[in-house]
Design brief:
single chain; about 50% helix; about 15% strand; globular
Length: about 90
């Protein structure tokens, strides 16, 4: 877990160092979407980038939003996110 106030450059550096298979981002409010989009854009610049999943209220009310932001998928809960991640990594 990395906190919401982590600067994007620090988040991307940590992800590049640890090379996870999946990064999951959550937004509780629509006002957080600009930050989510910024992080997703930065993740796309990483060679062999991880699968990017998103979730939270904005994605629940707009089911196709994840596609517009460039994520690989969305889920309504943690169980669904794990299942989706497993299927995307298979």
């Amino acid at each position: 877990y990395i906190g919401a106030s982590t600067p994007t450059r620090d988040l991307i550096a940590t992800i590049a160092d640890h090379r996870p298979n999946v990064v999951a981002l959550s937004a509780t409010l629509t006002t957080h979407l600009m930050r989510v989009a910024e992080v997703i854009d930065a993740l796309h610049a990483i060679p062999d980038r991880p699968v990017v999943l998103v979730g939270g209220y904005p994605f629940n009310i707009s089911p196709e939003l994840w596609r517009r932001l460039g994520a690989d998928g969305t889920a309504v809960d943690a169980r669904g996110a794990v299942q989706l991640a497993e299927s995307l990594l298979a």
